Amino acid sequence: MAEFKGTREAFAAAMLDMAAINDKVMVISPDSLKAMRAVEFGEKYPDRYVECGIAEQCAVDVGAGLASAGMMPFIGTYCGFLTMRACEQMRTFVGYTNLPVKFVGVNAGILGGEREGVTHQFYEDLSILSSIPNFTLLTPADPAQCYHAVKMAAEIDGPVYVRAGSGREVDVYEKDAPFSPDGITVWKEYGNDAVLFSNGFVLDRVLAAADILKEQGILVTAADINILYGKDPSKILEVMSRSEQLVTVEDHNINGGLGSYISRLACENKPAKVKRIALTDFGESGPAKILADKYGYAPEDIAKTVKEALKK
Amino acid sequence: MKTEELQKMANKLRLEAVRMIYEGKDGHPGPALSIADIVSTLYFDIMKVDPKNPQWEDRDRFILSKGHACPIWYAALNERGYFEPKVEHFELRQLGSTFQGHPSMHSTVGIDMTSGSLGNGIAIGAGMAAAAKAQKKDYFTYVICGDGELQEGVCWEGANVATGRQLDNLVVFVDRNGWQSYKSVEFTVGQNNIADRFRAFGWHVQEISGHDIDGIKAAVTMAKGVKGKPHCIVCDCIKGKGISYMENNNAWHKGVPTDEQYEIAVKELGGEK
Question: Which of A167, B80, B159, B192 places its Cα 20 to 30 Å from the Cα of A306?
C-alpha cells in the first residue's frame, strides 16, 4: 500500500491502479491534471484522458457523454467549480440520467482551501449534492481513506462524489483500513455522555477533543461518518442511540452536511439533542492549522462546546 | 431511402409531431417542424442504428440539443420501429407518459441522451465521440442544435474540446431558423454568423439548406471525408416549415393548434385526419 502526501496524490494513485486493470476508467480534466496530481495518468493513458480546458460545465457534459457510451469517467477539480459552476450539468446530465460519472472535488472546506481564500475554499458542496437524487457522497477523513473511497466509487452504480482536500489532511487511519461501507467507523468508546460525529479532515481534531474531555471526566464516544445520506444508516443509528447528546463536527457550512444528516436521522428515529459545529460564514486566507483553529475546530474549542451542550 | 421517400417521411413526421401537440395540448411545434428534414434523413438514411437493439454498442448516437423540438424525434423513433407496438397516441407531456416534455433517456427507448436544458449537446456529443475514439469504434455522433442556444457559453467550451481532440466523428447540425423564444437571434445578439464562429474554433464547416434532403446527405458524406476536425453543418431552416400559418411565425415557438388550425395543418401536410 502506497503512502500519500495528501488526498490528491491518493486520487492519482487510485486512478493509476484502477486503469491498469479496467480499460473503461478515464480522467476528465478541466485544466486540473496538475492540481489532481494526475499528470502521470495523462502521459500513460492519453486515450483515456480528456482535457476540457478551464470549462467545468463542459467537463461534466463530456463525462456524461462518455458514461452514456460505456466509459467510467472520473472528473477531478476544485469542488466548488464542480458543484456550483457546473451544478446544473451534475444534476440534469448525471443525477437525472443516473450515469456512472465519478467526481472528486478538492479544496473542500476551510482546511482544504486554506491560503487560497474564499474563492478557492468551498463549504457548500455537500449541501448542494445532498439535494440531487442518485448521488452517493463519500467523505474520506484522510489520504489513505481517499484512496479507498476513489476505488469504491468505481464499484458503486451511478454518480459518486468523493470529497477531497489540498494536502493538509492529517493521517488517522491505518493505510490499508477499508473505506467503511456502513458509513461509520467508531474510534473512541470512552463512554456515552455524548456521541461525537466527525466528517472529513477534522477527524484528528475530534479524536483529540474526546481525549481532552476524558481527562476532564466526560466520557464520550467518537466516530467518523464517511458516507452522507447513504442508503442504509442502520449502523449510524445504532451508535446514535447510545446517548441523548449528539455533537457533529464538519468543515462545511452548517446547513446540508453532516449536522443536517444526523439531525434528520435523530428526528426521524430517536430524538436526541444535536449540537452542530460547522461554518456559518465565509472564511479567509491563512495557514491551514491556524485557520481551522480560528474557525472553531481547535480540539480545546470542540471539547468546550461539548461541555456547554451537556450543561443545557 | 430515396430522396422523395425521405421528403415524404419528413412530412409524415411533421404531421405526427403536430398531432401529438394537438392531442396533448402542449408543446413546441415551430422548433420541431424546422428540423423534420434533417431528422428524417438521419434516421431513415444516414444513421447506423438497430431499432430492435436500441442499446447496440456500435450504433451511431444522436443528441437533440434543442430538446424542446422532441415531438419530431418521438415521431421518427415511432416510424423507425423503436416502439412495439407502434404508438398511436403519444400522450405527450401527460402524467405517466413515455413521452416527456423534453427527451429523457430513461423514459423513452432510443433516446441516447436526456436533453432540454439548452447548450449542452455539443459538449455531451464530444464526450460520446471521445468514447468512440477510446473504444476504437467507428460510430458517429450527430447533434442538432438551435441557433439561439449557441448563446450558451458551454456550447463553445464543447467546441473547444472537439477541436482539441480532433473529433472528426462528431457532426453538429445547427438549425439556423433565426428565431428564439422572444425575438430573432439577430435582435438578441446582433448577428447570426454561425459558420464564421465554428470556423474560428477550428471546425470543418458547411452551409446548406436544412430542407434540401440531397444537400443534407451530401454534406454528411463530405464531412465523413474530412479527417482531423469536428464537423458543423449550418442549416438554413424555416421555423414552422410545412404549415403555412406557422412558417416564420415565432408565435408558434410554443403553441397548440385549434381544431380549425389542425385541420389546415393536416391538409397542408398531405395527411389524413
Answer: A167
